[in-house]
Amino acid sequence: MPAIGVFLDAQDPVLTGSLDLTMLAESAEAMEGVVYVGLTIGESEIRREVIDHRLSDAIIACRSAHADHRGPTMIAAAPVTHVALGTTNAFVHQDYPPLSNRKAMDMIRMAVDRARSARPMTVRVDHPEPRALVLGGGLAGLVAAQTLRSQGVETHLLVRSNGLVRASAADLACNRDLMAALIDAVRSDPSINVYRSSRLQAWEGRPGRFMARISTPDGTRELRCGVLVVATGAQEYHPENYGLNSALFVQTQSQFRKRLNQWILGGSLAETPRFTVMIQCADTRQGTRLYCSKTCCTDALTNAIALKRFSPEAEVAILFRDIVTPGFREEHYHEARRRGVLFIRYTPDAPPVIKGKTVTVFDQVLGEEIVLGFDQLVLSTGIIPDPETPALAGLLGLTLTEDGFFRPANIKSQLLDLPRPGMFLAGLCGGPATPEEIIEQGLAAGLRAALYLRRPLKTSLTIATVHERICSGCGLCVRACPANARWIDLDSGLAKVDPWLCIGCGTCVSVCPNGASRQSFYEAGGVLGALDAALVR
Amino acid sequence: MSNDGKDFEPRIIAFLCNWCAYTGADLAGTSRLQYPPNVRMIRMMCTGSVDPVYVIKALADGADGVLIAGCHPGDCHYQDGNFKARRRVAVLREILQQTGFDPERVWLQWISASESKRFADTMNDMTEAIRARGPSPMRQEWRLEPLAG
Fold it and tell me: pTM of the predicted model, to two decimals?
């Protein structure tokens, strides 16, 4: 027998000002299945009434439903439905008060009718494996590992290369002292297990209780972990068409930086180029790679400044489409100008043309073509995804963005969560970022992962179930499931659901031809009941 | 309120995805955008979980219009539920057409969590469009009046 409690927010002055809550409370009391109507929505009061009146469902009619924006919740084992009388009714129909009172009544009735046909719901609770695996030993991976460690989590760091840090695109502009300090800290920390020259071979299990098989130089081993931080980085793009790699006078910004450092350390002024031309957005931000890599303008500016500082005689010209200098990096632009670096803007339809050791470009200011001779050509080519990213995404069951980086759970609100629970993202494998941003991402992803391990695991309230008597085992739901939570049991020939993998989206419900697939909270009877409440009076 | 004239009040059912369209609707309220109270919203976890039966049931119950609104393509919280919804609605509209029911009464819209204006505009446009189409034929045919006396 359903015993439904309706809780109206009579303390909200905006709501009481625009709706007739007394009338609503009276009509709610008369609805079938309603055993209690309260005029407060405090969680402790609701909890008390749920227990006292043995309520099977609680309906909270309040200003907004943002409290349960991630889906239905529970108070003292009673599923809670929020009815947003304010934001989806009173606030948007201010010109129609009598009708919005009517709509408020309908909304409550719809929630009551849905709750009346609901069946008891169970939420299972488990504890995550208190162990973290971090993939990638670059800036993001190191910071994430350290953060996890600082939260008292047993941390395992998997590194593909032999050393702890392979040259990542980020450390071009990164403070080397910071990087060295990080490497020392991680290396000397006995509670961070570092596996060098190791790879992830298989990834199984469920959120919070994953099983990773990793191949190390000492053989294959299995590792149980509760969370995963993916920080596999990206790399600098090396285009074919500029004679890169074949001539020393054509280099990328990071290659040029290395040589520049050698010159500066060796004090060999004579070797520095007299005329340097840098081309921004070289073979990038066009064709299939339209994104801006965020760091190459800063790299070009800092390289140009370093060169001018070391050898003020050197001439540097930067050919650019638009200078992107996030935050205080704008200072570099001003400094470069002060030191006499020449900036020449070009448009994508008239890119610079290189012939031997000259470059021809259409100068927007002069309105004519100019020819620049150079001894050194430096290309800002940007960042591309690591070539192993698609394979890793396949292994982990993740999707990539159209640019080939890992896709976060939500581009606005959950940038460091991967779409699968218990998996987090940090650094360049999620797309271009500045070193400061990478450090912040490493910290944030590490903290989010640590937080995930602190909380008990719960199955979704809107979980799918199978009504076995009418399931025909057709397998449509198995194909439709985005979480791979379903399979056809070979013994019975019927569909099964793993409650821990199910993410509660309900896609399987709408594909089932027999109605055997059910979603708790959103039972078909409940939705149809709500429709009746709205339409058949 | 007469049921046959154009001055009737349309009854619209909206199936809104929890992550995008419903959040957008909530934001419309917070921003105090105005639209007519002709809509009754049903919050679903995903547009992919909107069974065509629900839409048909709404139409059979006498709804004058049904809106299904969810995340923009590529933004689905569950990877591709909105694409499944799009295919399903395309087929459903075809079926409605075949059975002689006006398929333009079923709308599918992509409304993100931040597009409160788009939500309010959709509600305004849809209410007017459905009002122009007149009451659903199901309203008269399916409503059985009790015998007088």
Answer: 0.74
